[in-house]
From TrEMBL:
Descriptive protein name: Metalloprotease
Keywords: Hydrolase, Metalloprotease, Protease, Signal
Basic and acidic residues composition bias: residue spans: 122-133
Signal peptide: 1-27
Region annotated Disordered, chain positions: 114-133
Any GO molecular function: metallopeptidase activity
């Protein structure tokens, strides 16, 4: 009987620990090293991942900022008033557009706009609306 109670206690304790850790594990930072990347058409390059699950991008050694589209291509990025947006021009394939943002401009924009906090707040608001009352 004592073994059963001990097993039950350890099971409940383990479950509580897992649930606690799960609720506190939100955004995680991206890997900070240089990664070899490849366009679907074969062009390869090295990029550095930045951000977390709320807001992320890739930068090249030349300071170009890239986002991946739904087809897997890495595109140059432009800044709108409140978000990063793909220009639709593929890195190492198309000519770099004049409105493409570089990493220095992006870092200034991030300090002023704080997109991670805004994206997280939008997500939390969405979850609150979806949760049963």
């Amino acid at each position: 009987m004592q073994r059963i109670l001990k097993f039950l206690f350890m099971s409940v304790f383990s479950l509580i620990c897992v649930l606690y850790v799960q609720t506190n594990a939100f955004a995680a930072p991206a890997y900070e090293g240089v990664v070899k990347m490849k366009q679907p058409s074969g062009e390869s390059f090295e990029g550095t991942l930045h951000g977390d699950e709320w807001f992320h991008w890739v930068s090249t050694k030349d300071g170009d900022v890239l986002l991946q589209d739904q087809k897997g291509y890495w595109n140059y990025v432009e800044l709108t008033s409140d978000e990063l947006k793909s220009t639709g021009k593929k890195y190492k394939i198309d000519k770099k557009p004049s409105m493409a943002v570089n990493e220095n401009n992006l870092n200034k924009w991030i300090k002023n706009y704080n997109p991670q906090a805004k994206k997280k707040q939008e997500h939390m608001n969405k979850l609150q609306k979806e949760s049963p009352k």
